[in-house]
Structure formats: C-alpha cells, structure tokens
C-alpha cells in the first residue's frame, strides 16, 4: 500500500451539518400575537390583526387555563375592569402552562387604558378555549359580554376580530339549540355594521342571519333579507362560499333550479380543499338540483376523495332516477330516509318521483314503437286504482312538455312513438358547446379579477435575498390560511 507523501494533498474531510427546525412554543406564539396586535393597533394596519387571528387558529389546540391567565397578566393591567371580567372565565392553574415569567415583565403593564384591539382579542381567545372545552353556557355569557363591548367600538382594526366574535357567538347558540334567541341581536348588529361601513362584519352577519332563518326553514324571510341587504365585493372567500351555498338552498326551495345549480357548484368549487364537510353538503344539494333539472351527475362526482361514503345514498338515488325504476326509487328513499332528513333534502326527494316516471317513460318510448297504456303502467310500476288512466295522463303531460316524441291512440289505448331523428341535425350540440364555453369564460374572468399584485411591483426590482424572504412569508401565509379554512368550515 502506497504511503501518502508530504507533497500529496490531504484527503478532503466532508462534514455534514443537519439543520433542525424548532417548533415555536405556545408562549412564543402568544408573544408574537401580542406584538402583531399592538403594532396593528398603533399603525392601523388591519393585515397585522388578520395575521394574529390566523396564528391563534393554529394555536387554539394548545390553549390551557394557565397559558391564558399568563397572557392576561402580560397584556392587561391588573386593576382594569377588563382583566377582572376576563379572568373570571378562566381558572388559573399552577404548573408549566403559564407564560415564561423570566421573559415577561415583573410588573403589570403601566398603560392607563387597555387597547380595544387587545381587549377584544382576549375575549376571542377565551371564547375559543371555552368552546373547545365544551363549556357552552359560560361561552354564551362571554360572547354576550363581548358583543356588548363591541357596540361601543367603531374602529376598522377591530372589524376582523369582531367578525370572528359574531361567528362564534352564533355557533355557541347553535350548539345549544337557541338560535332563535339571538335573531334580533344579529339584525341589530347587521344594521350597526352597515351604518359603520364595516363590510366584513356585514357579510359575516348576513350569512349568520341566513343560516339562522334556514335552520328554522324560514326561506321566505331569508330571501327578503338577502334581496334587501346591500351587496359589495366579497372580502372573505369563506363568507362568499357560505353565501353562495345559502343562496343555492333558497333558490332550490323556490323552484329556481338553474340558478340554484350555478350557486351550489360555484360554492363547491371555490371552497378550500380542506373544507371537506362544507363541500360534501354543497355536492349533496347540487346532485338533487341536477336530478330535478333532468340531468344525471357524472360518476366522478360521487368518487371524490374523502366523499365516497357520505355521497353513497345520493349515488344510489341517482342510479334509481337514471334507470327510471319507481320501485327502486322508493326502496332507496326508505332505506336512507334518516340521512335525507338530517341533510334537509327529504322534501326535495319527494319532488323527484315525477322525474323518475318521466325517465322511465322516455326509456319505454325509445324501446317500443307502439305499446299499450296498461303495459306502460306495469313497466312504470304505478300503484293506483286505475293505472291505465294514470299512465294516459302521465304520457299526455310528457308529450306536452316535450319529454318524449309520441302520440296517444285513445281508441286502442296505445302510445305510438315517433321515429327518433338525428340529434346532430338539431341545435342541441351547439347549445351544449355554448354553455361550456360560457362556463370557461366566466371562470377565466373570475380568476383575472382575483389576481393581486404588490404596489409598485413594475418599478422595483427585488434582490435574491428579498425574493427568498417574500417566498418564505408567502408559504407561511398559505399554511396559516389552509389551517384557518379547515377550522372555519
């Protein structure tokens, strides 16, 4: 073996360093939130308050009594009324849950007044904690106190926090089956938000009121409120999705199926992928509306990831409508009656009986050039005292509506189908292509309108370091928004 000479270069030693990313502790997150709220309040930057809310949504699973009590001691003067009131909602625990005393000031804050943004945020923190602990009665008291405090505040930096308070105020009453009690308060808050030009609060409260009315099946009142409420460009994608969903439900009950289908499909498309429960509800209603329109949803609608089990009853219902089997339709409706009742679609499914008969009649007219009305009643499985007479009236209505191309021979009791023509010689393909083109153009226009650009981006050229920092901030923001969407829906 050759020995290395002094002239030979020494072998290079490769050392690998592993970088470990430490997850910030709840105490660190709360300190960052405190800094964001104070900076946002003094500089009147709403985006900092919004970021503090997003960080709180990430933090909410780690909240404890000791952690919240330590945060109050850090941001609220001990002799303030807000501190005494908020401390009554949480019991201070001894242990490692409290905030780091070494890092915190040894004395209470010397501020004479509490920042309104910080006080409302403390209410928001307590409300989240009480709801997660399923202490709904105390959460209702806390939310009511916060609503009373918000009525005396008119600051745009508080609007983001106020909209969240409104949401959880309604949620905690819904969880305790007492939504009707707060309807008057929600209407008063909506009027107040309108007078103060609080657009985020307006769209949040409008959705809460629509949900309140629809919870008790008050569709006429919901439509009157919706039609008279001021409309403006949506500030929150979550609230806009909710509005489209409620609008689709109202349009469905009012028999305006085309508008309902558009609203429901748009709500399902705009909802974030993490909002699985919301998207399932949108798809359930959209399937029913499409069946009422005489359309058969594609199989891929029922095979979406994470939705197959929830949409199984609607898949079987769609199959019964597709084959036009009235007996199978009754079996499916009875089998999943409890599911349809809990989804609020049972009354709509009763309307589908006519569509099932029409589909079966269309299949019969295609298969037979001439068939007796008694056989039509047998194949449709009509259970009535005079099935032939019922079949005659059903066939006559289908011919009048243009569902089938046939005639009735009343003398012999026959249905005579006309020869099927070439569909490509009609305007149907053109109408189908036109609807698809309009859909794609509308989606493109919405995407263009949703584009956002930083100010003076065409004048300034950012360096590589600034670009990396910006990309890192965008990734963190996207992560927080995804977790926030998951919590919201």
Automatic annotation (TrEMBL):
Q: SMART domains recorded for this chain? A: PAM (SM00753), PINT (SM00088)
**Recorded superkingdom:** Eukaryota
Q: Which InterPro entries did the record assign?
A: CSN3, PCI_dom, PSMD3_C, TPR_PSMD3_N, WH_DNA-bd_sf
Task: Kindly list the GO molecular function terms attached to this UniProt entry.
Answer: enzyme regulator activity
Q: Which residues form the PCI domain?
A: 241-422
- Which ranges are annotated Low complexity under compositional bias? 15-27
Instruction: Name one process (GO BP) from the record.
Output: ubiquitin-dependent protein catabolic process
Does the keyword Transferase belong to this entry? no
Outline the segment boundaries, as ranges, of region: Disordered: 1-27, 452-489
Q: Where is the composition biased (Basic and acidic residues)?
A: 457-482
As for family, the record states: Belongs to the proteasome subunit S3 family.
Q: What is this protein called?
A: PCI domain-containing protein
């Amino acid at each position: 073996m050759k020995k290395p000479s002094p002239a030979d270069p020494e072998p290079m030693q490769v050392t690998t360093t592993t970088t470990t990313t430490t997850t910030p502790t709840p105490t660190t997150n709360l300190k960052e939130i405190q800094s964001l709220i104070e900076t946002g309040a003094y500089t009147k930057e709403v985006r900092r308050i919004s970021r503090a809310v997003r960080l709180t949504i990430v933090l909410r699973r780690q909240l404890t009594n000791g952690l919240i009590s330590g945060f109050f001691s850090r941001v609220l003067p001990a002799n303030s009324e807000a501190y005494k009131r908020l401390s009554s909602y949480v019991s201070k625990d001894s242990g490692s849950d409290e905030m780091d005393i070494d890092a915190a000031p040894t004395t209470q804050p010397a501020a004479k007044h509490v920042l309104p943004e910080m006080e409302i945020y403390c209410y928001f923190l307590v409300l989240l904690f009480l709801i997660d602990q399923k202490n709904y009665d105390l959460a209702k008291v806390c939310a009511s106190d916060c609503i009373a405090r918000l009525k005396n505040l008119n600051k745009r930096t508080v609007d983001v926090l106020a909209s969240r308070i409104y949401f959880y105020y309604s949620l905690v009453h819904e969880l305790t089956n007492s939504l009707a009690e707060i309807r008057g308060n929600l209407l008063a808050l909506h009027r107040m938000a309108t007078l103060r030009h609080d657009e985020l609060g307006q769209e949040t409260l409008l959705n809460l009121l629509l949900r309140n009315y629809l919870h008790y099946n008050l569709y006429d009142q919901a439509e009157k409120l919706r039609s008279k409420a001021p409309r403006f460009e949506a500030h929150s994608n979550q609230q806009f999705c909710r509005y489209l969903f409620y609008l689709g439900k109202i349009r469905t009950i009012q028999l305006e199926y085309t508008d309902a289908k558009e609203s429901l499909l748009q709500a399902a498309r705009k909802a974030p992928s993490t909002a699985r429960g919301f998207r399932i509800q949108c798809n359930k209603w959209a399937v029913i509306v499409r069946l009422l329109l005489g359309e058969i949803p594609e199989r891929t609608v029922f095979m979406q990831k994470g939705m197959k089990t929830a949409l199984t009853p609607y898949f079987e219902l769609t199959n019964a409508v597709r084959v036009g089997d009235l007996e199978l339709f009754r079996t499916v409706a009875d089998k999943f009656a409890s599911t349809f009742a809990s989804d609020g679609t049972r009354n709509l499914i009763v309307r589908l009986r006519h569509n099932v008969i029409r589909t079966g009649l269309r299949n019969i007219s295609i298969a037979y050039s001439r068939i007796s009305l008694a056989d039509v009643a047998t194949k449709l499985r009509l259970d009535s005292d005079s099935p032939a007479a019922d079949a005659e009236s059903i066939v006559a209505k289908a011919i009048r509506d243009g569902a089938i191309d046939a005639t009735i021979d009343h003398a012999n009791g026959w249905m005579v189908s006309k020869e099927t023509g070439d569909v490509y010689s009609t305007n149907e393909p053109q109408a189908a292509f036109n609807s698809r083109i309009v859909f794609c153009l509308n989606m493109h226009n919405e995407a263009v309108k949703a584009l956002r650009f930083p100010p003076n981006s065409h004048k300034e050229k950012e360096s590589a370091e600034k670009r990396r920092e910006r990309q890192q901030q965008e990734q963190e923001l996207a992560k927080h928004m995804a977790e926030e969407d998951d919590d919201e829906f």
